[in-house]
Amino acid sequence: MEGLRAALEKSIASRGLSLTPDEALKVASWVGRMPTPVELHLFDTMWSEHCSYKSSRRLLSVLPTNSPDVTLGPGEDAGAFRFAEHAGKCWDVVVAHESHNHPSQVLPVEGAATGVGGIVRDVYCMGATVTGVMDMLRFGDPLGPAGSRVRSIARGVVNGIWQYGNALGVPNQGGDTCFHPGYDDNCLVNVVAMGVVESSRLVHSRVPEAAHGEPYVLVLVGKPTDSTGFGGATFASADLDEGGLRAVQVADPFLKRVVSIANAAALDFLFESGASFGFKDLGAGGIACVSSEMAAAGGMGVELFLDEVPTAVEGLPPEVIACSETQERYGLAVPERLAARILAIYNEDYEMPKLHPGAGAALIGRFVDDPVYRVWCRGTEAACAPVEAITRGIHHERPWREAPITAPGMPSREFSPAQDISRMALSLSGCSRKPLFSYYDCEVQGIALFRPGEADASVSLPVPGCMAGLAVSGAGNPWIGELDPFLGGASAVAEAVRNVVAVGATPLAATDCLNYGSPEVPEVMWQFRRGLEGISEACKAFGFTGGPLPIVSGNVSFYNQTPAGRAIPPSPVVAVFGRISDASKAVDISLKEPGNLLVLFGPRRGELGGSLYAREFCGGSGGPPPGFRPAEEREMAGEILEWISAGRARACHDISEGGMALAALEMILADSDAGGCGIELSCSCDAIALCAENAGYLVEVRPGDLPPQMPGFASVIGTVTGDGSLSGPGWRLEVSLLRPAWADRLASVVWREE
Questions:
Q1: What's this model's pTM, rounded to 2 decimal places?
Q2: What is the reported pLDDT for 48?
């Protein structure tokens, strides 16, 4: 045993693997000998944190994943929920949520681009037409000690997103962007993709049951395999350093577009044939991952023939062919009798080999009843292991310990409304995101109703000819998360829900991306556990269609820290998807008419902890962060939905970062006419009233539409004016003078010439 352990340790070191010696010994016990190089790399990839969720899998069970609208919950490449019936057909929305943090920190353009590419493939392979992407970005302080590098990474990430998404022809539907010094060394790139599919044509990412009765083969489709991305999954499962350049993948959106069209033709053929089939994208772990996971999910084994894999260069080692994460590839599990026609669709009908050297489709394996994973290369058996050992992986019970948190004191300073609101608006948290969104194509496909920045959530019409609107928004507040990890999780759900509700859509489903430091640090595991509990409690509070708000897809991203141990703030990021049956009733945030009333939902409370006001003026001291009050949140959301459905709300904006002050200012700024509508507040204008960030909404209502009896949490706090200013008792802010600097602030800081 000692000799085997020594040999394993030597192989681990020489190959740069992340397997621990104990894990490698488990691999040896599964295969019954010293593992081959392919087996070592295979298990290194599939047992990585990124692929196996070995530190989080059991803990994720606290999240609700089912409701009457869920078609497909977590477990496949993407989740799905029922969306609409139109022209005699039922339609599902397919959603996926991933992170590409480590690659984006090391190679921002390529890392972010392949993040978009990977999440788009997850939706495509479920048979859906991709109708949008959304990105939630977290960068360091561009004006801090690492400012030059932070700015370079931010520019690179945005370039990668637009270069890929725009070329692919998929609209960007928004997201959010935060700047926090905790991300100086580890940016976060969390990407969401969504699409629609006829319910009867939803595809599963596994070999089907029919494979037990007739021969099924594995067809590899797309770009030829090369060494790019080799070790990418393990790179994402370790502390970040600069040694991960080789593990970053290279995207090709133009080839992806052609592959996607050819995929649609192949799926049409398979559906018309009546044959069962499976379809899965190649992401982390490459061929090894797609083949083992499809086989295991169908209760089968697989034989792989690496000599049949098209490669970009000669002589690639078998472990590279098996585990490289070369982009723009898919795997199809199809009956052997149909394989020739599938190959012809890609190679002849769409002439993929002529578009890119080595691209196309190839038959590279067959599924077998014996649940064993066998790999052949150059006449030799390069790997042989139980499929279950590869895909079920291992589990670590990580210890956890509560992290000490010092509650910041309440601020004590004189509040000057006009000056303080101006400063918050010109901060990197309060300024316009239009300089960022302007890089993205939000109009392609012609389905956008509300574009990024026009409303609290984007709204699109994804089903051709159908007026059902799909609303989507993402949220996650690191300043709350670092003060209280539970509230970090709960507030991410709550804010995303409020954003969707504010346009008039009923929340139906959610996805999450859980970004934390090393799970081997007990305090991080406590943060992770508390974040999950917060998400779970919030999802249970927001069930609008029977049952809780379900998490249907997502991922866990650990090891977001440097080798020196500097970890990011606890950063759960949640996206919420909602439906508004008649999208013509959706409302944005722009003010409509002078003389209308401004109604506040949600009493203001002295909870300034983590607020923009506390950060800008009080050195972070703001008392406790905003609490999560499930009953009040649920009641307010229900009332907002009723007001919008009844046509009572002319505009609606949720209260979040910057409090009621920035919410009101943003409603004024949403009007491109500098001399348009303004707001005169008649309420108390102290710091708590204007800057507290606890849950709430601002709603514009015609005087005659105000209900005779308002709910207890609602009150009229102002009127819409025609002078374009924001004012209150004894103060006035000329918004037209602020507008140019507010609109240009982000570009002047992040996109300035170095």
A1: 0.94
A2: 82
